[in-house]
């Protein structure tokens, strides 16, 4: 039987967390899936941990890269190999709740083919809850330019209807670039208000490098989205505003 859901993970030096991620996928109520874990030339023992699980679960496919290439290239390698009707992503340090796949599969036919869900945010130990991001009931192309409410942790796409698209090979915001490609094809992404996943906040993560993020967000508007300086300024200002609200809500 062909897998209904294709899962893609880019892994880099996640040995401290990858087992929790794998177990959260294996514990899904919905079981008809395939999973491409693309290791981006980790220098810790991520590969050996994943290999052990893959040996005992044929649904897990380990794909080790021969050099560090970045998350976009790693994820695109997985996208190219997908055979399922639906495509979704999980990072190597995050966790799905057991109902994540089942809820998305049950709901996707009632949408234009693109879903995302709310998620909880925890510290690195997954013991301290830092907040919860409740996604809007729907978001358009323009809304995502203002603030990207679609997490790579919860995006769920019907590729049997919408086809395969690939992430732009940029260091930052490659996931946002992919969402916008799909939102050029449809009117909106639907949001599930229930939190179906847990996002682990790590101090050393790429998204926490605030100065670089500002620079790359501006470049994203100008170079990927092809917006004018005026349009870029408008969306950039809103992006900073919504980003600040999210940051301070975590500080409370």
SSE diagram, text form:
Blueprint: E1 5-11, H1 18-26, E2 33-39, H2 46-56, E3 60-64, H3 71-81, E4 86-89, E5 95-96, H4 100-107, E6 114-122, E7 129-133, E8 138-139, H5 141-146, E9 156-158, H6 159-162, H7 174-183, E10 189-200, H8 210-224, H9 229-251
Parallel strand pairs: 1-2, 1-4, 2-3, 6-10
Antiparallel strand pairs: 4-9, 5-10, 6-7, 6-9, 8-10
Helix pairs in contact: 8-9
Total helices: the number is: 9
Q: How many individual β-strands?
A: 10
Enter the CATH topology name.
Answer: Spore Coat Polysaccharide Biosynthesis Protein SpsA, Chain A
| CATH uppermost class | Alpha Beta
H-E order:
EHEHEHEEHEEEHEHHEHH
How many distinct folded domains?
A: 1
What's the main sheet like?
A: 10 strands, mixed
> Rg, please?
17 Å
Give the CATH H-level superfamily: Spore Coat Polysaccharide Biosynthesis Protein SpsA, Chain A
Low-confidence stretches: none
Strand percent estimate: 15-25%
Task: Choose one word for the global shape.
Answer: globular
Q: Calculate the terminal CA-CA distance, rounded to whole Å.
A: 48 Å
CATH architecture: Alpha-Beta Complex
Structural class computed from helices and strand pairing: alpha/beta
**Roughly what percent helix?**
25-40%
Average pLDDT across residues? 93
Report on this model:
The protein has 252 residues and is an alpha/beta fold. The protein has a single domain, classed as Spore Coat Polysaccharide Biosynthesis Protein SpsA, Chain A, CATH 3.90.550.10. The protein is built from nine helices and ten strands. Strands 1, 2, 3, 4, 5, 6, 7, 8, 9 and 10 form a ten-stranded mixed sheet that branches. Helix 8 runs antiparallel to helix 9. The mean pLDDT is 93.
